[in-house]
Amino acid sequence: MTDSDKNTRHQARMARKKAMIDASIARADQEKGLLLVLTGNGKGKSSSAFGMVGRSLGHGMTVGVCQFLKSRTDTGEEAFFGKQAGCDWHVLGDGFTWETQNREQDIATSQRGWAVAQRMLADPRYDLVVLDELTYLLNYGYLDADQVLDDISARPPMQHVVVTGRAASETLRDFADTVSEIADVKHAYRDGIKAQQGIDL
Amino acid sequence: MTDSDKNTRHQARMARKKAMIDASIARADQEKGLLLVLTGNGKGKSSSAFGMVGRSLGHGMTVGVCQFLKSRTDTGEEAFFGKQAGCDWHVLGDGFTWETQNREQDIATSQRGWAVAQRMLADPRYDLVVLDELTYLLNYGYLDADQVLDDISARPPMQHVVVTGRAASETLRDFADTVSEIADVKHAYRDGIKAQQGIDL
């Protein structure tokens, strides 16, 4: 096949593709506040939520972020996004559950954290609410899953919510508009590389 | 089981978990510039790269971003990150290939774009380089894959590179330190919801 043939075929193929894509864009014409769930064992769940924080701030939207497990406040994400106008950032954890080793303390911490999330989910001034690592609190039973889903579903209709964390439950997935499952195909950590600034924290 | 039993068992289980995790952290003690590949059909590949941009800026790192397919400059990510000190943002596309329908034009655009990436990959002042939607240019054959991999592997040793896009090749995966495959379990788009500001653009 000559280069000219290749170019002609390419043009025809792309014209067909454009027609399909345009029709599909025309069909997707509704707007609403979305519930997105980013789960799975791979790298990129929280990072992806933080990318959406940046996108939202770029459109002048107001964003609330609850980091439920994290207790450290030396992360790049907090240093950067926490100081941005329009971004309300809360580090709500006491460290991971295996650090505290104290179930009652973890439950109390989780419930205090959820009260912060509830305030955001009840407030239409927040266009996006990120509930980072929420799944762990649900899976350990530190929060009541029914209460959490009730609060999420009663939020203002145009408010987006992003939930991250491994092993999102079937109920949470059913409830969500968009679910991405991030598989850990390969991770530098297993080759002895420690968590890297800018990439992992 | 009483609450007190539950708490005691929890403490023992978490103490074992902490010992395992601490040992695994102690084993991962190396630092190097990573190549991360975010692929798959699900939502969250570019968002995740942009989250790492935010994290890196929070640590005072210098970041370069090449958006290879995108031609629109009204996205939230560009509005937000493009104006940040330490972030060098380039929108290098002519639109998606089905918009131009012109293979020769797409090849020329891709090669001009790659020259921008090459400059970043050769410059140790960049701590992180994001090559957003690069896989499409490789999969369509618009760029020479060997050249691209040579340029990535010749970069400064502490520079991180994040590549996004569907259908990353086996070669690219082999080459990477971390690979996440993002599965599209569910997407609001298929329910007629259009791309939402802050979430998708």
UniProtKB/TrEMBL annotation, chains A, B:
Catalytic activity: 2 cob(II)yrinate a,c diamide + reduced [electron-transfer flavoprotein] + 2 ATP = 2 adenosylcob(III)yrinate a,c-diamide + 2 triphosphate + oxidized [electron-transfer flavoprotein] + 3 H(+); 2 cob(II)alamin + reduced [electron-transfer flavoprotein] + 2 ATP = 2 adenosylcob(III)alamin + 2 triphosphate + oxidized [electron-transfer flavoprotein] + 3 H(+)
Protein name as annotated: Corrinoid adenosyltransferase
Gene3D superfamilies in the record: P-loop containing nucleotide triphosphate hydrolases (3.40.50.300)
Entry GO terms, CC: cytoplasm
Any Gene Ontology biological process: cobalamin biosynthetic process
The protein's Enzyme Commission number: 2.5.1.17
Family (UniProt): Belongs to the Cob(I)alamin adenosyltransferase family.
Keyword Lyase: no
Keyword line: ATP-binding, Cobalamin biosynthesis, Cytoplasm, Nucleotide-binding, Porphyrin biosynthesis, Transferase
Pfam family, one: Co_AT_N
Record has Cytoplasm as a keyword: yes
Major site of localization recorded for this protein: cytoplasm
